[in-house]
Every structure is written in C-alpha cells, then in structure tokens.
Amino acid sequence: MRVLGALPPGPSFFRYHSKVIIRQATYADKPDIFEFLESAYAGRSEFKFPHRWEWAYETNPYLPGDAPPVWIAVAPDGRVIGQSAALVEPLVVDGAEYRVGWGVDFFVLPEYRGQGLGKQLQAANDAGNEVFMSLSMAESAAGIKRGLGLESLPAVGVYTRILHHDPDSVRATLARRYRWMPPWLTNSLSKPAARLLTKRSRPRQLTPPPSLQVRREPHFSEAFDRLWARLGGEYRALVRRDARYLTWKFKHQPHVQHEILGGYRDGNLSGYAVLRRASPPERDAGVLVDLFTEPTDRAVTTLLLEAALQRFWELEVTFVTAASSAPHLRDALFTAEFKESKTVTPLARAPFSLPGEGWLLGKGDHDWDQYPLA
C-alpha cells in the first residue's frame, strides 16, 4: 500500500489534487490496475485484461518508453479509481511519421465522479503523447477533449448492409411502418418477406477479368511492405500499414480472428481487405475492418469489397458494418448497397498543423474493432 501524501514512483508525475494522485502507471501497478478494470468493466473485464492489456500496453512494438501509456487516478488508500490509456501506433502525415496515442479505456469509478478527475486523466494522457486522437468515443469524453483543445477532423461515415433478414426483425418493421396492419397479418407475412429480402440481399457474383483475382492470405508477407511503399503516399494522413504493423494489429490482437483477402492485378498485390465475423457476446455482424487500395483503382476496390461480402454471406452474418473517411471507399460502399447509419467526428491534437482532408480512417483504427464491439 502506498504512503498517504507521498508521491508514487513512476516515470512521470502529472498532478496531485484533493488527496488523489494522477500519474502515469508503471508495470508494477498491473495488479492494482487489473483490480480496477475488474470493477470498471464487470462482465466485460476478461476482454480488457490481462491479454488485451498486455498486447496494447506491454508488447506493443510502438511504445515510446519503458512505461505503459496508461494514466491512473490513485486514491489515498492506494486503490486505482480511474484510468485513461493510449493505444500507440505509427501515424504518417504528409510523409513524416509520428506516434499517435488513441485515447482508450477511459473510466472513473462512479463514486469518484464529479471531482474533475476525468479531465485531469485526459489532460495527462494528452500531454503524454506526441499526437493525441480519438475516433469513436462517448460524448462525455468528447466534451472533455474539446475542452482540452482537440480539434475536429472530417467526419467518418459508418455504413451497414443487411445480408440475412430474420422474421422477428421484419415483423417489427412491418408493425412499425404499417400500424393499421393486424398482428396476425404481420406474423404471417414476416417469414416469406424475410426470405424474399434475404434473396435480394445476396451479394453479386462477379466474374473479374483474368488479370484480377482475390486470394485468402495466411499472413502479412513482404508483399504488404511493397504495397505500403507504393500506396502509402496516396493518402495525406493514415496509420502505417506495413507488414510489421498489420501483423501486430490483426494477427496478434487477442480475442479476435481476422481474415485477410489480397487483391491481385497481374500477379502483384494491389490491395487488401481485413475482415472478421463477430461472435457472442457480440451481435451477429461481419466487420469490414480495413480496406486498403489505390484511390483510383476502382476495379480492385470493387473486387475486394464484393469478395468480402461473399465471405460474410458464406458465414451467414445478419449484417455487415464498415466505416471510412476516404471518398473512393465511401463511393464503393454505396455502390455495394451499404447505407450510411451514422457519422462520427474524430478529434485530434498535434504539435503541427493536421490536414483537413486526405485521411484514411476506418474500423481498424483507434480501438473501433475491439472485442466485444462497443
């Protein structure tokens, strides 16, 4: 137990206020942090620690120092009562590389709220990162970050396409849209309507020319390094997508199983898609996590998107969700009959001017693909 009033050991001390200490954690704090996470996330805590915590804050190859990018609020009795962490990744902006800290796992125990601890934790997290960003966040967290000076970036659209319609959902839709319809009629129509809608939702069977093909990839090979070297400069701002990063993010991430589709033109890798099928306790969804292609290569983009939909059809998911800030990917999603379900506004702070366009942001960024889906 820590001594009341003594500054705790650690690589950086941020603020001491009202007998609660705000500081960067050390790896020696893991037991206390895990106890806090058990209380904070209750039924979801097994997906927060130990495996995901260690992947994000201990074995992450992009960590800048010898301490986890986790800022904690410590009560006088030594208990961790709040946390704000950062998922650190390599961010490339106009050809220069920086470390971005995505704000994640922000929580203050209910009995300690209303004392300004949340703002102090977020401020410490912001100060501890070269670039600080958030993509998907609660409105309360967004308000704090705007107050700290984080600026809005162009909105990111979230898109959904239903593949398999279930009778219960169809029945509810009929009842909502046609209030005059008696229950016996909605019940009798729901099953045939669901079958018809599902038949109409089947993805297109594309017959690409011999020069184009899609392959299932077992891992991220050196070909992905060559693809990054060729296409990375097509976007003004994006997370580095070389084989090292992709392997850590999508092959080593615990609790999730990603599949990789490679799009080839004349035998050369020209783009890829990363996807996964959600599993309980998540909803029955397919997640198009990442789609990386040359903005002007409509054929490869379409081929990969349709191949992903075919795969999700085989997996019998109810719906597919995707997100993107890139205009060419938004256009491809609309062409593939996705509907925009909402938009989110990223927030960012950097020691340089951030571009107002040319971003590639999607489900694979931040912790937007965490398990279970937030």
Number of helices: 10
How many domains comprise the coordinates?
A: 2
Question: End-to-end span in angstroms?
Answer: 34 Å
Low-confidence regions:
1-17
What is the CATH architecture assignment of the largest domain? 3-Layer(aba) Sandwich
Q: How much strand content do the residues show?
A: 25-35%
Radius of gyration: 23 Å
CATH topology of the largest domain: Aminopeptidase
Mean pLDDT: 91
The number of E-state strands comes to 16
Can you give the helix content as a percent range?
A: 25-40%
Instruction: Give the CATH level 1 class of the largest domain.
Output: Alpha Beta
CATH superfamily of the largest domain: Gcn5-related N-acetyltransferase (GNAT)
Backbone shape: globular
Write the H/E string, N to C: EEHHEEEHEHEEHHEHEHEEEHEHEE
The secondary-structure class comes to alpha+beta
Largest sheet composition = 9 strands, mixed
Q: What's this entry about, in short?
A:
With 374 residues, the protein is an alpha+beta fold. The protein has ten helices and 16 strands.
